[in-house]
From TrEMBL:
Ranges annotated as biased composition (Basic and acidic residues): 544-553
Keyword tags: Hydrolase, Membrane, Protease, Transmembrane, Transmembrane helix
InterPro entries recorded: Bact_TGase-like (IPR052901), Papain-like_cys_pep_sf (IPR038765), Transglutaminase-like (IPR002931)
Protein name, per record: Transglutaminase-like putative cysteine protease
Highest taxon of source: Archaea
Originating species: Haloarcula quadrata
Positions of transmembrane segments: 20-41, 47-65, 72-90, 120-138
Gene Ontology terms: biological process: proteolysis
Amino acid sequence: MSAPVTERVRDRVPWGGSRILALLATALAIGAPLRTMYYLSDVVGDPTLFLALAALSFVGATLLARVLRPPLAVAVGAVLFAGGVGAYILNLSTNPAITELLSDTVALLTGRSLLQIAEVRLWVLSFAPAPVFLTWYFALRRWYVTATVAAGTALAFFALTTDAGVVTTLLGVVGIAATIGFGTLDTLSTDEPADLTKRPDAMTGSDGTERADDDGDGIDAGRRAVLEQLAAIIVVPAALSQVPITRDSLLSYDDESEGQTVEGSLFDAGESLSVRGSISLTPEIRYTVESEEPRYWRVASYDRYTGNGWVRTGNPRQYDDQRLDSPPGETRTLRQEFRAESSIGTVPAAWKPVRYSGEPSVSVSSEGGFQPDGPLSTGDTYEVRSELLVATPDGLRAAGTDYDDTTTELYTQLPDSTPDRVGERTAILTANAENPYETALVVERWLQNTKGYSLNVDRPDFNVADAFLFEMDEGYCVYFATTMVTMLRTQGIPARMTVGYTSGQRIDEDQWVVRGLNSHAWVEVYFPGQGWVQFDPTPSGPREAVRQQRIEDASSDGSSPTVGDGNPVERYTPPDTSTPAPLTETNGTETEPTETPTATGTDTPTGTTEASDTDEGTELSIPELPSREELTLGVVALLGIAAGARRSGLSERAYRAVWLRYQRRVDPETDVERAFQRAMYVLATEHRGRKSGETVRAYLDAIGADDRVRRLATLRERLRYGGEVSEAMADEAVEIADGIVSER
């Protein structure tokens, strides 16, 4: 039957269960990338327009499925895709836009998240219609494999960009597999009639001879084959979804003896940062710093808040030894020299760095800081010159709100799913504030005074800032900084999440030792005409006590860590009572940073509780239970392995090997029949199978069977025609079969 006739036959067939299931599976297959795109749209703004475009694509595919031929449908999809790419290029602010598009595409295919693209909302709106239209159109036309190609391509792309999580990827893979499976059943029931009354393996044996004992329905065989394939093709993607495609960070900073550390949680993420639960502290020395004054040694900042973490948008550029821009306000110069005391992948510096010299080479991040092009080895040194903002409270109060469009767009962004109560609570708390500076002071002070400091917290399931603001009593620096930035953004004040190290342990007049547990997160707020100003909402006293205790615990073995050329760091010396204040007078003397002093100079690493740090090893270690996602993947992987083994024949061969070599005794009749079948299997393997209609005696004569086999055949004849066999006869039959099998 020709293809058009076949299509007409299918169109006349009423919708059956297989077709409905195939369409539901297709919806799941395309739903996985749609879920990812919805999340991306929600993070950067209102997803309503995205939902409208997706709905229009579904409706269009449904209306055109019966009237539009497949080649034209492909052309429509191509036009939608090309139009989306064109719209994206035309709205890119950089020039040349084509170059940026190509560089972004390459970066995305090698593990860069779409959230790192500044125009991600435009990208999603441009990309969404084509795969949705093509997937649903071909599913309605019953071209199920083609439909899954469109959905699978979109899902694979989001998996490569790491935007599709494990659960989303797994759901998409299940949907694709189910679409193919149920689609095969649907087409089996509507294709031109074929002789499906016999399974292929029911009509012929392994040697090509007819098998008369196994009758069955062809569609049942097809159904079983489809289900086996369905499970088999899940295992590989499920396993691959457990493997990270790429990592942005150069090195891991985890202390393996204590698990994930604060430092690791802040810096291993590279271009993105996920808020975690409880983590531990590491006293490992990272840098020694020579500087005329202590500062917060800044590593990076993040502008895009996702609700459960942070992302830095934009692309880094190579540093060409040219002086970077200073802050717009009045500044003074600070020189710092860093020496790496361990292998590490960051180049901290006081904000705002303008010059760099040393090894390795560095790039300039999108927010204007330095990031290394390669890891630092122990002993590597580099020098940074920074321009420190000189500002006064009065100057910041008078800065106003004349923000440029780019700053407003980047640094007031919040996920659309951010609860309204965050902004409502912030507005109430800051009702008496007359300007952004006072608003920032109120929020900073409120968090310091009302929230406790703890290194042992349960990570919220949803929006971190909302949970910390309303449901949590304690947290560590990441929670404080995330919440303050979110609160300020609800009031239209540009703010960003910043990570780095506090000043560290002072070991000389102008020298500091910076440890892993000095890692910290704080807040930077933008003021027109001034630039970015540091605020630290994390209460300093409790975190200092935890950090100092951790250092003393690490030194309890009697050994002293060394730095530089072997100079010992024998004991912890608390820093000055106030650490780098963000506000200084023009003469260089420190002033009251705010009504509530800005931060202390100690670490704000996160980690386990004091008990977990000081009483390490005194409690029974209970293995962490696998997460729901890990359990799901484990079950799916096991099912896939089992189905794959069955489909490849491995499970059958294994079963046959056990069945052949081991006979469990049941009763004389069953034992004799089983022994006979075992012997016949060996004979079929060594000679040939019994032909259809060929008697047992004729078959044994044809292959020249020996007396043992003939005796076994005689015992079976007595069973079949005499009706009864004795226990002794069963013993004899099993013994004969065992001997034949052992000689195989």
